[in-house]
Amino acid sequence: MAKKNDGQLWELRKSSIHNQGMFAAADIEAGTRIIQYVGEKITKKESTRRALEWEAAARKKGEGLVYIFDLNKRYDLDGNKPNNPAKFVNHSCDPNCEAVNYDGEIWIVSLRDIKAGEELGFDYGYDIQHFMDHPCRCGSDNCIGYIVAREFWPKLRKLLKNKKKAEKVGRKVAKAPEESEAPVVKKSAGKKAAGKKTVGKKTAVKTAEKKAPAKAVKKSAGKAAKKAPAKKSAVKKTVTKKAAAKKTTSARKKKSAR
User: Fold this and answer.
1) Apex CA 253: angle with CA 250 and CA 257, to 5°?
2) Whether residues 205 and 224 fall in one domain
3) Is residue 41 part of a domain?
């Protein structure tokens, strides 16, 4: 068992779900930021390269290794680092936590009150493609059997009724990393504004924003985007008025002609 620091809300120990897991070291209230998921910020290209490399190694060992979170459109977060104990939080089909993106920082946040000793888990939010490569062993009463985002559960249940279709979607043909064109499996985090502690939605595929300069650029871009429609509408109104004026003028000319 990992040594617990004073005031620390979690501890690491053996899990029945998968190897090591993270457990509540004390009672935790809903909406609490339990631990930050830290790691190396990498480009999408590098993220894909690493994920495919890990996948090839994982296939040989018969186990899954996914530590990458989708941060934003340009970057991902590689959490496969020794200083990131949050990587040991396992997936659950009945999660008591969620991964939340607070302006580029990924946090594991409690969805409900958690008792000391409970294992922490969140929905990894995997895509439905190649779901058979990621069986779930969370043991919850409503476990779907595979690590798949809840939004895909209805589709997954239909697929499981048709064995051939299920095999086609659920199995991935092994290829060399450079040959693979399949979507890379990544964990997901729901986005929320910084400072908020609201308990609410996740998303199965993570997203985060840059701080400082990049943020300012995005904000200004957003404002410009909002103003643009207003200018267009103003132009339309002007055109309409001119058109109306022309109609009035032509009407007067006709009357005077009479």
Assistant:
1) 140
2) no
3) yes
Q: Which domain holds residue 255?
A: 212-258
d(CA 120, CA 15): 10
Q: C-alpha 47: how far from its chain's center?
A: 15
Q: Are the beta carbons of 198 and 79 closer than 8 angstroms?
A: no
What does the alpha-carbon distance between residue 56 and residue 37 come to, in Å, rounded to a whole number?
A: 24
Please name every residue paired with 59 in a beta bridge, in sequence order, or none if there are none: none
Same-domain pairing of 14 and 118? yes
Cα–Cα distance measured from residue 89 to residue 140, given in angstroms and rounded to the nearest whole number: 15
Question: How far is residue 37 from each of residues 83, 119, 154, measured CA to CA in Å?
Answer: 10, 17, 30
Same domain, 129 and 195: yes
Whole-number Å distance between alpha carbons of 180 and 56? 11
Q: Is the pLDDT assigned to residue 201 strictly greater than 60?
A: no
Higher pLDDT, 106 or 227: 106
Work out the mean pLDDT of the chain and round it to a whole number: 74
Task: Identify the pLDDT of residue 7.
Answer: 81
Residue 3 in any domain: the answer is no
Q: Residue 4 domain-assigned?
A: no
Report whether 181 contacts 130 (CB < 8 A).
no
What CA dihedral angle connects 154, 158, 160 and 164, to 10 degrees?
Answer: -140
